[in-house]
Specification:
Radius of gyration: 31 Å
CATH topology: Protein Binding, DinI Protein, Chain A
Strand order of the largest sheet: 1-2
Number of helices: 5
Number of strands: 2
Largest sheet: 2 strands, parallel
CATH class: Alpha Beta
Length: 173
C-alpha cells in the first residue's frame, strides 16, 4: 500500500512538473530594430553628436594653442633668445598645458557618457515598460533579445514567438 501511495505521489509530482514546464511561454524580439525606429533615439543621437563636435572643437583649439606655444619656444631656443632658466620655466608651463589637455579629454569622455546615459535611460525605460506590458498581456514568462550585440544568443526561434511587432505597436512605432 505504501508503494502504491509513493508511486501515486511520484506520478503526481512528475505530472505537475511537466505541466508547469509546458505552461511557460517564451518570446523574443530584436531590440536594435525597435530602437532604430524610435524618433527619441534619433534625437538623442543628434544631440550627442552635437555635444561631441563642440567638445572636439574646443579640444582641437587647446591642442593648436599648445603647438603654437611649443613652436614659438623652440624658435626662441634655437635663436638663443632665452636663458636656460627661461626655457625651463616655459617648458614647465607647456607641461601644465599638456596636463590640461589630458584632463580635458578625460572630462570630455565622462561628459559624453553622462549625456548619453541621461538621454537614453528614459528611452530604455520606456522600451522595457512596453516589453513588460506585452509579456503580461500575452502570457509570456520570458522574452529574449535576438540582437546578439546585447549578449543574448538565440540559436533557433519559432517566428510566431517574435514579439518585436507587438512591442513596436505598444510604443506607437
Amino acid at each position: 500500500m505504501k508503494q502504491i501511495t509513493k508511486l501515486f505521489i511520484l506520478i503526481l509530482v512528475m505530472g505537475a512538473t511537466a505541466f508547469s514546464a509546458d505552461a511557460q511561454k517564451f518570446g523574443y524580439l530584436n531590440s536594435a530594430e525597435i530602437l532604430s525606429g524610435m524618433t527619441e533615439v534619433k534625437q538623442a543621437d543628434s544631440s550627442m553628436e552635437a555635444l561631441q563636435k563642440q567638445l572636439q572643437k574646443k579640444g582641437q583649439q587647446m591642442v593648436q594653442s599648445y603647438q603654437t606655444k611649443l613652436q614659438a619656444l623652440q624658435q626662441k631656443e634655437q635663436a638663443g633668445e632665452l636663458s636656460p632658466k627661461q626655457i625651463e620655466d616655459e617648458a614647465t608651463k607647456l607641461r601644465g598645458e599638456e596636463e590640461k589637455i589630458g584632463k580635458f579629454q578625460q572630462d570630455m569622455e565622462k561628459q559624453i557618457m553622462e549625456k548619453r546615459n541621461t538621454l537614453l535611460q528614459p528611452i530604455f525605460d520606456k522600451v522595457n515598460a512596453a516589453i513588460k506590458d506585452v509579456a503580461k498581456e500575452n502570457g509570456y514568462n520570458y522574452i529574449f533579445d535576438r540582437n546578439a550585440q546585447q549578449g543574448s544568443t538565440i540559436l533557433y526561434a519559432d517566428e510566431t514567438q517574435d514579439v518585436t511587432s507587438l512591442v513596436k505597436t505598444k510604443l506607437g512605432l
